[in-house]
Structures are given as structure tokens and as C-alpha cells.
Write a structure and sequence with these properties.
The protein is about 30% helix and about 25% strand. A seven-stranded mixed beta sheet has the order 12-25-26-27-23-24-13, covered by helices on one side. Strands 21-18-19-20-14-17-22 form a seven-stranded mixed beta sheet, with no helix packed on it. The protein has a four-stranded antiparallel beta sheet with strand order 4-5-6-7. Strand 1, helix 3 and strand 2 form a beta-alpha-beta unit. The chain has three domains: about 240 residues, HUPs (Rossmann fold); about 160 residues, Beta Barrel (Ribosomal Protein L25, Chain P); about 120 residues, Ribosomal Protein L25, Chain P. Helix 12 packs across helix 13. By secondary structure, the protein is of the alpha/beta class. It starts with a helix and ends with a helix. The longest helix has 16 residues. The chain is built from 14 helices and 27 strands. The structure holds adenosine-5'-triphosphate and magnesium ion.
Length: about 550
């Protein structure tokens, strides 16, 4: 195993190979990457992958990473999103070199456009969007030039200045690059560089009424910042010739674009547009609903930054589209939480147990390990008394063979406490079991057990008079199919109606009264939990981060 691991560590992904080669042959002295989110929504786990990749690459090779907001579309962008994005990147554990905004380059981008017009590489087109699309041809048919393509440089300069000055309405004119209307690559058929949009921008206000298109802004922004390796997702491959064309014809810093496959995860959707619909149509409580694939959703659910970084590392960098099983992400968080979560006992569906041979009114303080995985574990106090709660499902009146929990005449160990034996039970008029009568073995105390009795089952429990109340929220997958976006019809038709189960009152050991937001817990036999932000003075609320085992895999096998 460790041999295999070492092998893995030695082999480089294709981006690392490129960077090593570029550094070795002196193409760059150091590398500079960037993470370029559009502030039109909250980041999702796919963005986390891109963040880990861009920041990770720079860290590994002693370079730096910029955070650049790709804010060229005034209509959909907002400072709320800018703030959340900064929060998320920091939470993941990364610090950027410079915080930059594509909108800061609007003046320079305008000047670049003027330069291209002067060189005869751009023209103002009065055609409508439909006309432009029609004249562009199809992949098998070349496009045709219209009368605007041959406008003089002078006329173009004047018209472009007038566009900027607000002389025209939205859609009346565009600025296009003059490249090749017969190119097999549709992106090269005189792509639009600027469109008119009389809209307020979250940073530049009303200063501009023309805005650069992605293709005219992105590469130039990279170049302005001297980005060496501009990493993006595969759908931008056909944009690369255009990226290079602008840089070449402007003779500016030669940034280069490289593409990797975007992360797709089972049982969720991963586009800001779709996530926004879930929020706006109230299928979830907000962008940070713990069922969302957003970074803030995972954070609220109790995921650790480390688990997400490990996940990003494990899935690696591929050049082919694929769908990653969400159980891999769950595996990463379980591994991390197992190492750090404090163990606590919480009974969800209580059945009262009376220890008939335990002194009435007495409370004994037992010690429980906070974390058996930690050789230097701390301990918490666990009160024990005559009246306890166990889980209703941990008792059977008539037990089958190999049932190692409680049944009449059977013994179990109460975790961190004593061995008890069930002597009798009480039923109400409807036949429901209301109470168990048990005896405890005083010499069987955990840590100093001299009873010599071996029992197979260990149960979690709480002392009834000491128990505190809490609410737990049990989350499941938000969608009931692996890839909701590829199913027929609307992706929202595939929402899992049982993605949230709320248990309003559970009975928790008193140590949980002091829970803090950053704490992580394993509720024994129940799963990993963390405090939710809805917690108030009156009520503790816990989110289930993940179950202890992959219960979904079992469900699928059962059919
Ligand atoms: P969405 O469609 O979800 O809005 P986007 O690509 O439009 O995604 P941007 O804010 O433009 O979102 O992306 C910022 C960076 O994150 C880009 O470099 C983009 O390639 C990358 N990215 C976005 N989604 C993923 C994903 N699923 N996997 C990996 N990287 C991604
Ligand atoms: Mg986008």
C-alpha cells in the first residue's frame, strides 16, 4: 500500500509536467496562476476543485495565485457574491497574492480594442444578433461578410467612441474582431468583442455602457497580470485559438491557456444557474443549505477544508469529462472526522431503563474518552444514574439468535459504564413497551472491569435526569438520480423528497451543552454531527454531516 502511495506521489499530473518543463527550460522564472470566478453566485465544489488546482500548483512550485473577479457582465453580478467567494477561498485554506477585478481593466481593454481597430483587426457591426448569427454560417458552411466589415478604420474609431459615449441603444451595434468568416472554428468567425449594455455595474457604476465579452476580457486580463498558466475547464478548448489571437495581435504578455475536465458529482447539480433556481424557488433554505453542493453548504454541513482538499487531490486532474461518485467525498470527510471528532452519546428515540439495583437519587460521574483515535485523548464527564434512556430499537421483546442488544434475560454493556441485564419490561394498554427493568453489575465498570463477563453488544445511552434536549437534522442526497442534469425534463423533477428529516427532540449527554460551532462530533452509532447556525439560547440544533457508513451503497444493493 505505502509503495503504491509513493508511486502516486512521484507521478505528476499533466499540468505539473508542463510547469516543470517551463521552469526547467527557463520559459518562466516563476509561475503565476489565477482563480477567476464570475461573482454571479456562490461557489460550488467544482470551483473548490479549480481553487485547489490553481493555488496548489503555485504552492508546489513556489509561485503565486491571484484572485480575479471576472466581473464583465453587469447584470448578474453582485458584491454579496464577491464577499462569499473570498470567504470560501480563505476557508479552504488559501491566500491570494492580489485581489483583482476584470472591471479594473475596462479602460485598458478599451484601449486594446482601439489598437485592434487601428490595425484593421476590428470593426463596428450594425447588424442585429439574429443577422449576425445567420451570417456566421454553420460548421459545414462558411459565413458571409456584410457591408460593415469593410468600414474604414476612421469610421470604426468614431463609431466605437460613440458606442462608449452612449449614443446607441442596447443591441444597436457591436464591435467584432475581423478574423476569418470561413474558419472551421466558429469562435474565430469574427467574434463579438464589445456589446452595448446600459446597465449599472456593481463596481464601475454607470461609467460604462459597453462591456467586453468573456473572450476579449479573459486572456487580456491574464496578460495584464502576467499570468503564466491560465487553467480553465475543457469547454474552453475551442476558445483557445481566439485567446492566442488577441494576445498575438496586441503583442502583449504571452499567457497560455490549459484545460482540464470539470468536476461533476453524482446526486447533485453543479452550475450556479441551477443552484440559484433551487434557492429562488425555495427547494432549499438558501445558498448555504447543508444539502447544497456549494462550499458554504458543505461548510455548514460540517465538512472540513481538509476533507475537500483531500478529495480534490484524490480525483486528480483529468482531460476527460467524468462523473465522480459522491461517496468518494463522503469517504474523505469520514476519514478526517474519525481522526478529530469528539465522541458523544445521543438517544434519538428514547426507551426508559430503570436500574433496579442502583441507589435512588444517586449520580455517579463516569469518564468517557473524547476520541479513542487520539493517543492523547481528553475525557469528558458522563453522569450515570438509576434512570437512563436507550434507543428504542435496541430492545426486542422476542429476539432472534445473534441479536446482541437488549432482550429479556440478555446482557449488554453500556458504553463507558456498566454491563446491565434486562430482567423485565412494562407495557401500556396499547401494547407499547414503556420501560425496561434492568440490573447492573457493579464490578463491570468500564476501565476497571473485574466481572469476567463477556458481552457482545455495546449500547449508547444517557442518564435521564441529566439529559439535555436538542434537535437533529438528518440530511440525505438532494437528488434521487445520479445525474439529474442529464435526465429527461427539468432537473428539479428529480429532487429527493426525503432529503431532510428533522428529529425535533433528541436526548443528549450533558457535555454537549457546551458545544461550539467549530467542534465536530461523532454521535456514537449515529453519525458525524456539528452545530448548526440556527442554534439559539433555547435550542441546540445539530446537522448530520455524514453517516458512519455508506448506507446509500447498501440501499442500492438491496434494490
Ligand atoms: P457555473 O456554470 O457553475 O457558473 P462557471 O464556469 O461559469 O461555472 P466561473 O465563476 O466562471 O463559473 O468559474 C470560475 C472558475 O472555476 C473557472 O476557471 C471555471 O473553469 C472553474 N470551474 C467552474 N466549474 C467547475 C467545475 N465543475 N469543475 C472544475 N472547475 C470549475
Ligand atoms: Mg461562468
Amino acid at each position: 500500500m505505502s509503495e503504491i502511495k509513493k508511486e502516486e506521489e512521484k507521478s505528476l499530473n499533466f499540468l505539473e509536467e508542463i510547469v516543470e518543463e517551463d521552469l526547467k527550460n527557463g520559459r518562466y522564472k516563476s509561475i503565476l496562476t489565477r482563480f477567476p470566478p464570475e461573482p454571479n453566485g456562490y461557489l460550488h465544489i467544482g470551483h473548490a476543485k479549480s481553487i485547489c488546482l490553481n493555488f496548489g500548483l503555485a504552492q508546489k512550485y513556489g509561485g503565486k495565485t491571484n484572485l480575479r473577479f471576472d466581473d464583465t457582465n453587469p447584470v448578474t453580478e453582485d458584491t454579496e457574491y464577491v464577499d462569499s467567494i473570498k470567504d470560501d477561498v480563505r476557508w479552504l485554506g488559501f491566500e491570494w497574492a492580489d485581489e483583482l477585478y476584470a472591471s479594473d481593466y475596462f479602460e485598458q481593454l478599451y484601449n486594446f480594442a482601439v489598437e485592434l481597430i487601428k490595425k484593421g483587426f476590428a470593426y463596428v457591426d450594425d447588424s442585429s444578433a439574429e443577422e449576425i448569427a445567420k451570417q456566421k454560417g454553420t460548421p459545414t458552411e462558411p459565413g458571409v461578410a456584410n457591408q460593415y466589415r469593410s468600414r474604414s478604420g476612421e469610421e470604426n474609431l468614431q463609431l466605437f467612441a460613440d458606442m462608449r459615449a452612449g449614443k446607441y441603444k442596447d443591441g444597436e451595434k457591436v464591435l467584432r474582431a475581423k478574423i476569418d468568416l470561413a474558419s472551421p472554428n466558429m469562435h474565430m468567425r469574427d467574434p463579438i468583442m464589445y456589446r452595448i449594455k446600459h446597465a449599472h455595474h456593481h463596481r464601475t457604476g454607470d461609467k460604462w455602457c459597453i462591456y467586453p465579452m468573456y473572450d476579449f476580457a479573459h486572456g487580456q486580463s491574464d496578460s495584464i497580470e502576467n499570468i503564466t498558466h491560465s487553467v480553465c475547464t475543457l469547454e474552453f478548448i475551442p476558445h483557445r485559438p481566439l485567446y492566442d489571437w488577441f494576445i498575438e495581435n496586441l503583442a502583449i504578455f504571452p499567457s497560455h491557456q490549459y484545460e482540464f475536465s470539470r468536476l461533476n458529482l453524482t446526486y447533485t447539480v453543479m452550475s450556479k444557474r441551477k443552484l440559484k433556481q433551487l434557492v429562488e424557488e425555495k427547494h432549499v433554505t438558501g445558498w448555504d443549505d447543508p444539502r447544497m453542493s456549494t462550499i458554504s453548504g458543505f461548510r455548514r454541513r460540517g465538512y472540513t477544508p481538509q476533507s475537500i482538499r483531500t478529495f480534490a487531490e484524490k480525483i486528480g486532474v483529468a482531460k476527460r469529462e467524468n462523473l465522480i461518485d459522491v461517496s468518494l467525498l463522503e469517504f474523505c470527510i469520514r476519514e478526517d472526522l474519525n481522526k478529530m471528532a469528539h465522541r458523544r452519546m445521543v438517544v434519538f428515540d428514547p426507551l426508559k431503563v430503570i436500574i433496579t439495583n442502583y441507589e435512588e437519587g444517586k449520580t455517579e460521574i463516569l469518564k468517557g474518552e473524547d476520541n479513542p483515535e487520539d493517543p492523547n485523548t481528553t475525557y469528558r464527564d458522563i453522569p450515570f444514574s438509576r434512570e437512563l434512556y436507550i434507543e428504542r430499537e435496541d430492545f426486542m421483546e422476542v429476539a432472534p439468535k445473534k441479536y446482541f442488544r437488549l432482550a429479556p434475560g440478555q446482557m449488554v454493556r453500556l458504553k463507558s459504564a456498566y454491563i446491565i441485564k434486562c430482567d423485565d419490561f412494562v407495557k401500556d394498554a396499547d401494547g407499547n413497551i414503556t420501560e425496561l427493568h434492568c440490573t447492573y453489575i457493579p464490578e463491570s465498570k468500564s476501565g476497571s472491569d473485574t466481572s469476567g463477563i463477556n458481552v457482545k453488544g455495546t449500547l449508547h445511552w444517557v442518564s435521564a435526569p441529566d439529559a439535555i434536549h436538542a434537535e437533529v437534522r438528518l440530511y440525505d442526497r438532494l437528488f434521487r438520480v445520479e445525474d439529474p442534469s442529464s435526465e429527461e425534463g427539468d432537473f428539479k423533477d428529480y429532487i429527493n423528497p426525503n432529503s431532510l428529516e428533522v428529529v425535533e427532540t433528541v436526548y443528549a449527554e450533558p457535555a454537549l451543552a457546551h458545544s461550539k460551532f467549530e467542534d465536530r462530533y461523532q454521535f456514537l452509532r449515529k453519525g458525524y454531527f456539528c452545530l448548526d447556525k440556527d442554534t439559539s439560547e433555547e435550542k441546540l440544533i445539530f446537522n448530520r454531516t455524514v453517516t458512519l457508513k455508506d448506507t446509500w451503497a447498501k440501499e442500492v444493493k438491496k434494490g
